[in-house]
Input
Amino acid sequence: MRIYRANTYEDMSRKAANIISAQIIMKPDAVLGLATGSSPLGIYRQLIEWYKKGDLDFREVRTVNLDEYKGLAPEDRHSYAYFMKENLFDHVNIDPANTHIPNGLEKDEALECARYNEVIAGLGGIDLQLLGIGANGHIGFNEPGEAFEKETHCVRLTDTTIEANARFFETMDQVPKYAYSTGIKNIMQARSILLIASGKAKAEAVNQMLTGPISPACPASILQLHNNVSIVADKEALSIYDSL
Output
């Protein structure tokens, strides 16, 4: 693993955006695995800025998102499809046909999971997978458990994750309890992985990811087995690791 230290969230975002932009420049039709939530917002703002300056071209880029809430339409402002349009896709010259997100409205879980796995395979796999990390060590919606989930699956979100996501909804009852998520196998098959972390709340998860045993109790720990992982984290997220 390569670890890049950042002083602030903004510094982390810029360093991570540099890695993504280099991937696009080196391979204009790159397949990017994208993440949602608050962690990547600064990255997306930076990529949009560079696009507007003429430094980046998204015309040939293909994307696959990690996950989507089950039961939410793409037009729902709480959906990850809406999030991606608002925070990246609508601000760059990417072809909407080249963007892929699980269909939260598909009730047949087996059908949707198989379809999404086929989408990823049809693109030739993921060149660079962007990940955040949850306070409980989850990546995507791969929650702590007794085994690593292999491919796209429908997951019952843990109470910790539901509480963490509640800030995006008006009430706790509105937070979806299930989501479609790509699995650990999908993530580990990416040619390169970029994980970002910011803040003290992520420090223990980062520590377990880097130095703990490889265990589904901390899904991110599996990244120790990947041969091309870059971690960009601020000093607070690395605070426990620094003391070892």
Q: What stands out?
A: The domain at 2-242 is CATH 3.40.50.1360 (Rossmann fold). Residues 71 and 107 are 8 Å apart (CA to CA). The helical segments are 9-26, 41-52, 80-87, 109-122, 159-165, 184-188, 203-211, 239-242.
